[in-house]
Every structure is written in structure tokens, then in C-alpha cells.
Amino acid sequence: ALARSSAERAALEELERASESTNPALTFALDESHRLSTEAVLLTHILSAPEELDALIEALLGSDLHALIVPTDEEAARLVGRIDEEGTTGEVVFLGGCAGTCGAKAHEGRRLIDELSFDPGYASRIEALIGDVFVVDALADALSAHRRDASVRYASLDGCVVDPSGRISCVRRSEEDRRNSALARRRALERVREEEAVAAKRHDDEKRADSQREEDLRGAQTEALRLSESLAGLKGRLDSARAALEDAKRSAAQGEQERVRLFKEQEENRAFLEQAKPDSDSLERDLAEVEASLSKNKDEVVDLQRDLSPLQKKIVSLSEQVSDARLEAA
């Protein structure tokens, strides 16, 4: 839509320039005013009318439709002097300072300038040109109104104008001429510029939306990458946990086997202890008897030692005597 509106706008602007270029004096005056930053504007650029009034306004204004509005009469005179200095040819209509106005006295029909759209700052210029024109439906109505009041001009919607002098002019345009009229071109240009502005805004909004979507996509891709990495890490931890679980299961199975073995061994030991308990009691009794017998024997040994002690002494004495006897015999 933007490309189409831009192309249509460029084409209409080219038509405007081509139309203006057919009048070298007007083109020069525009360029000269723009060069000096003078606030000059073409009447067709500030005047807008309903489509059904295009032909009527062109008939009323004639060459005045392409008038150049300048701030003052002095500026108009300066531009005329510059045109003469350059030797440029053509016709230029200037609308200078604030012209006088026609009274808003009531007349038959509708006042033409009330049907038009324009910058209020140019109202005095517009009123000076067509402030005395009142619009009626048909030529018969214009003639009837003129007979009752000939102080103003009456224009009919079918393109006829009755002057105060009684002069009647009639304008007929082909359909193509209507489409290519200065006001129609300007209206189309303004419409296309508005469409282009809307399309440009929509295009900018779409570009911003696209940029936002691209940014969101990049963010989503970044987040997806982060989640993928996180998922890979979680998967690795899950695999490790599964491996640890399998190890734990194997360890638990081994532990269970060891528990069963120990339990079995405990039961066997318990059975062995239960079986060995009577022998233990018997051994304890035998041990007590042996200890008692040993104690008794110990007492007897003590008694024997006591009885033998004199004998030992006697034996020692006899041994000494035998030794002495041997010594003597020798």
C-alpha cells in the first residue's frame, strides 16, 4: 500500500510540476519567492472544494485559479520587476495584501465561499475573488435571482454564471477534463498524501512490530537455547541419577544377600549355642571338681613339704658327713 501510494503521489506531483512548467513566468515567480523564503503559495494549494463545484470555480476564476498569493502588494511588485529583469514570458496573477471584502448581505442561494475549505489566513483574498458569488441549482434559478437582485453574481451547479451586468457564461467540461482539472488534481494529491501518510505510519508500525517480533524471536531462540542446554544438563543428571539408582539397587541386592547370609549364620550360631549349652554346663561342673581336687592336692603337697623339710635337712647333713669321710679317707 505504501509503495502504491508513493508512486501515485509522485505521479500527481509530476503532473503538478508539468502543469506549472507550461507557464515560465509563474514558475520563475515561485522559484524566486522560495529562494528569498517569501511566504508565497499558489491559490490551488490552499483552496479545496466539493467535486461538483470544480467546473464552476474554474469558470469563475479562469486564470485567477492559478494566482500566486504573496504577503504584500510590494512583494508582488518586486516579483513583477524580477520577471521583467529575466525577460520571462507568461501570465502571473498575484494576490497581494488584504483586499477589501464584500458584505455578507443575504442573497438568494448559498454563498460560494461557505462551500469551500481554505486557511482562514487567506480568507480576505478568497473573498475578494469570489465573495460576491452565490450558488443556485440551475441557470433558470440564476436568471430569476438576477432579475430580483443584480448586485452579485449567481452561479448554477450546471456550470453557468450570471454577472451583475447580465452577462451569461456557460462552461462544459468532458469527463476527462473534470478528472484532470487543477482542483481535482490537487484534491487527489492531498488524498494520496494522506493515504501515503497513513500507509507510511502503518508501514512503520509494521516494521516496529516486525522488529519487535524479531527481537521476541531472538529472545525466544536464546531462551530455547538456554532451555536446551538446561535440558541437556538435566538429562545428564537424570542419566547419572539412573546409573546411581542402578548401583544402589545392586548394592541393595548385595546388602540383602549379605543380610540373609548373616541372618542364616546368626541362626546357625544360635542353634550351635543352644546345642553346646549342656556341654558347657558339664564342663563347668568338671572344672569345679578339678579345681576342688587341685586345691586338695595343693594342701596335701604343703603337708608333704612340711613333712619332708626335716628329712631334707637330715639328708643335707648326711651328705656333708659323707663328703667329710671321703676327704679323710683320701
Provide structural commentary.
- With 330 residues, the protein is an alpha+beta fold.
- It is built from nine helices and ten strands.
- The strands form three sheets. It has a five-stranded mixed β-sheet, with helices on both faces. A three-stranded mixed β-sheet has the order 1-3-4.
- Helix 1 runs antiparallel to helix 9 and helix 2 packs across helix 5.
- The chain is rod-shaped.
- The mean pLDDT is 80.
Low-confidence stretches: none
Shape: rod-shaped
Largest sheet: 5 strands, mixed
Q: DSSP helix count? A: 9
Mean pLDDT: 80
Derived structural class = alpha+beta
Please state roughly what percent of the residues sit in beta strands, choosing from under 5%, 5-15%, 15-25%, 25-35%, 35-45% or over 45%. 5-15%
The succession of helices and strands, N to C, reads HHEHEHEHEEEHEHEEEHH
N-to-C span: 163 Å
Q: What order do the strands of the largest sheet run in, or round the barrel if closed?
A: 5-7-8-9-10
Rg, alpha carbons:
67 Å
DSSP summary, beta strand count: 10
Helix content: 55-70%
